[in-house]
Amino acid sequence: MRKLTVGAALVASLAIVAGVSTPSRADTGQVAVVFTKGGFIVGVGGGEGVLVYRGHKYPFTVSGMSVGFTIGASTTKFVGHAYNMKGPASIEGSYAAGGAGGAVAAGAGAVQLQNGNGVILQLTGPKVGAEVSAAVGGVTIKLK
């Protein structure tokens, strides 16, 4: 009978621990960004966007620079998703080619970016203007 009591106590304590601890869960947010870029050799760009996360809107700014072959100017209106969100602040940071983050262009107006927080942005949108670029660079996102 004593073994049953110890076993029941063990099961009860495990149930309490399991009920108290909650696994960390990453969420997905929706993102809309307007980004304007221009330059000759060195491209500079910036813009604004909005993250919609758990029903709330969080405005942010985007700034970026690229070094390499860049000629022209363009404006792109991106929309898409932010994956692996642990909160609205996790969208902040540098999204750069190489290092902790990365950027992979997938055709005109489509991009996938990742920051050091593990947030992945998958964005698409039409590009207006004329720009030719074979440059390496990145962007920084900061909540307002």
Approximate shape: elongated
What is the name of the CATH topology?
A: Lipocalin
CATH hierarchy: architecture: Beta Barrel
**Radius of gyration based on Cα positions:** 22 Å
Q: Major beta sheet, specifics?
A: 7 strands, antiparallel
Q: Class by helix and strand content?
A: mainly beta
Low-confidence stretches: 1-24, 98-107
Number of helices: 1
Tell me the distance between the termini: 63 Å
The ordered string of helix (H) and strand (E) elements is: HEEEEEEE
CATH top level class name: Mainly Beta
**How many strand elements?**
7
Secondary structure: helix percent: 10-25%
Number of domains: 1
How confident is the prediction overall: mean pLDDT? 72
Tell me the β content: over 45%
| Assembly annotation | single chain
Summarize the structure.
This protein has 144 residues and is mainly beta.
What does this structure look like?
- The chain has 144 residues and is mainly beta.
- It has one domain: Lipocalin (Beta Barrel), CATH 2.40.128.
- It contains 1 helix and 7 strands, in the order αβββββββ.
- Strands 1, 2, 3, 4, 5, 6 and 7 form a 7-stranded antiparallel sheet that branches.
- The longest helix is centred in the first third of the chain and has 19 residues.
- The chain is elongated, with a radius of gyration of 22 Å.
- The termini are far apart.
- 23% of the residues are buried.
